[in-house]
Amino acid sequence: MMELIAQNMAPIMFVSLIIFLLIGYPVAFALGANGLLFFIIGVELAPLSGGSINLSWPLLGAIPDRFFGGVVANETLLAVPFFTFMGIVLEKSGMAEDLLDTIGQLFGPIRGGLAYAVIIVGALLAATTGVVAASVIAMGLISLPIMLRYGYDRRIASGTIAASGTLAQIIPPSLVLIVLADQLGRSVGDMYKGAMIPGLVLTGLYMAYIFVMSILRPHYLPALPKEARTLGSGVTSLIVALAVAAGIFWATTRWLGPAHASDAPIWGMVIAVTVIYVVALIDKTFGINMMSRLAQQVIIVLIPPLALIFLVLGTIFLGIATPTEGGAMGAVGALFMAGIKRRLSIDVIRQALYATTRLSAFVMFILIGARVFSLTFYGVNGHLWVEHLLTSLPGGEYGFLIVVSILVFLLAFFLDFFELAFIIVPLLAPAAESLGIDLIWFGVILGVNMQTAFMHPPFGFALFYLRSVAPKLPYKDRLTGKMMEPVRTSHIYWGAVPFVCIQIVMIGVVIAFPQLVMHYKGAPIDTSGVRLEIPAGNSGGFGSLGGGLGSPFGQGAAPGGAPAAPGGLGGGLGGAPNFGAPAAPATPEAPAPAAPQPDQTQGSGGLGLGGPPPGLGGN
User: Fold this and answer.
1) Which 3 state secondary structure label does DSSP give 162?
2) Closest by alpha carbon to 55, among 83, 13, 100, 101?
3) How far apart are CA 271 and CA 248, in angstroms?
4) Which of 307, 506, 545, 594 meets the CB 3.0–4.6 Å disulfide criterion with 607?
């Protein structure tokens, strides 16, 4: 009986961890306690395991090194507090409120315009904050009362807000992608590049769903009434401004092209955006009215967050900054934007630091517990058990991806994305790599899948965030004075279901079309025109180390592949090294008769295929 337990320690340990979590123990402490408990059991049962348990008491001394190397000295995870701080400061700066009001006015005349605005703002907040809680709470407080005021269906309104907030999971600079890249041992910049297109495609699928619902159920998503569109129309003015900016971009790119070929488009974009932003500011400040109010507001409100996105993601994609440095610049940029809006105060900084410290400590404690668990789990060959279990699935790599996606989807009902990343991903990565699956592609699939963890009824965190700010009781609308019905929890849950289905479809799309992710590698290099030529003066070729490698390090090789003069590698491996002193003339010796050999190559005095190596078997 004890032998059976010892030889099956890995599955027993994994099942016991799940039981610990289901009972309700905190994840970090469940991981650490489980690892230490089974370490003690494993040491005692190691003699009965037949070699399947590799644990001993001195191995406990490796735990401090694992803490320091994997947690304290992990520079990649430094990006987590930077991006968290940036997101909280931007939330407090009122950027979300300005974006929702402006884009809502822009899309107001069409059915579902407010829902489109929520999705677009959700994508912009995702690309600037990277924090789901900040996005959902901000949009729930600002846009939900407006959508209810103008007759939006409660299920569609709540589902759109919750789903748009979860875009921060997959659109860079996502905290999930940072952790996934760290656990998979891949570059955060490559993970960001690979996830960008799937994130934009998912945003487009959300908007396509709103478009379909606006046709099938037009009364669920009414247009914004004319009296609510306080900025007027002015779309033509905005189109003209964008056309002028495009012309400036084209002209500056052509002008800078000869001198800055690779950087010309970037500088052209920076100059065009700066010019149009300065013109809009001057037009609004001095009342010139060259642009419509709508065009002014859209340009002034949209360009700062877009500039912040470029400051963070652009520098990472261009290789100018690491993700940690990009996060630091984003945090400084967020403080600057909040200061410009005169919303930066000691209280805002205190709240941002408090939230950042809590989230960072949460991540660190889970990572410490995961290190203790993985030390024991690897000691009982648990990684080999998981790898053999997953690589033996039918269907090859696609069968593996489908089964793993289902597993992560089900575990996401109970585990947070950080917990999934620290517990499950390290066990899945070796199996994926052994099947030849690109780990960036695999990480993006997991990222889209973990996004569903925020939307699962009844445990989705985004649903909890929205429930905390949605009205629970009838209330009086402050603008119209009408009594409004509350938003029930069932509205939030049923509103989330279509978006969960869209996320599942997106997982299938990423699996079926890996090109959406694999573009991060860049264009393939054409090697058809590459030629390798050996210099004509080195006739000894690859068959003679004395002739071929003697020249770069010592005296040149003699014609015909004869051994080089003493002092280089041509003297063979058996002679004494010469460190630069003049060598004495070599005394010629009578050549020993060599036995005839078929296909003897030229330069037989070296380490070639045609004769014995000098210094090891000749002379």
Assistant:
1) helix
2) 13
3) 8
4) 545
- Report the pLDDT value the prediction gives residue 130, as an integer from 0 to 100: 66
Task: State the amino acid at position 494 in one-letter form.
Answer: W
229-271 pLDDT tens trace: 777 677 888 899 999 999 999 998 888 877 766 667 778 888 8
Percentage of residues of the chain with pLDDT beyond 90: 18
Q: How far is the CA of 56 from the CAs of 61, 583, 605, in angstroms?
A: 10, 57, 54
Note whether 443 and 507 are within 8 A (CB).
no
Distance between CA atoms of 338 and 307, rounded to whole angstroms? 14
Non-local (6+) Cβ contacts of 493 within 8 A are 457, 458, 463
Rg over CA atoms, the chain: 32
- Distance, CA of 542 to CA of 564 (rounded, Å): 15
Is the pLDDT assigned to residue 591 strictly greater than 90?
no
Q: Any idea where the domains of the chain sit in the sequence?
A: 1-69, 75-233+292-519
Whether the predicted pLDDT of 553 surpasses 60: no
Distance in angstroms (rounded) separating the CA atoms of residues 427 and 472: 42
**Region 457-462 average pLDDT:** 80
- What digits encode the pLDDT tens for the residues 195-208? 999 999 999 999 99
Outline where DSSP puts E strands in 116-251: none
Q: Write the DSSP assignment of 541-577 as a string of letters.
A: GGG-HHHHTHHHHSSPPBGGGBPPPBTBGGG-SSSPP
Given a contact cutoff of 8 angstroms between Cβ atoms, the answer to whether 338 and 345 are in contact is no
- CA distance readout (Å), 172 to 160, 166, 167, 217: 20, 12, 9, 33
Could you tell me the CA-to-CA distances from 390 to 6, 386, 427, 450, 511 in Å, in that order? Answer: 22, 6, 10, 19, 17
The amino acid at residue 448 is: V
Q: How many residues does the chain have?
A: 619
Higher pLDDT, 408 or 262: 408
Q: How confident is the model at residue 524 (pLDDT cuts 50, 70, 90)?
A: low
pTM: 0.74
> From CA 275, how far away is CA 368, in angstroms rounded?
50
Q: Is the pLDDT of residue 155 over 90?
A: yes
Contacts 24+ apart (CB under 8 A), 573-576: 573/607, 573/613, 573/614, 573/615, 573/616, 574/614, 574/615, 574/616, 574/619, 575/615
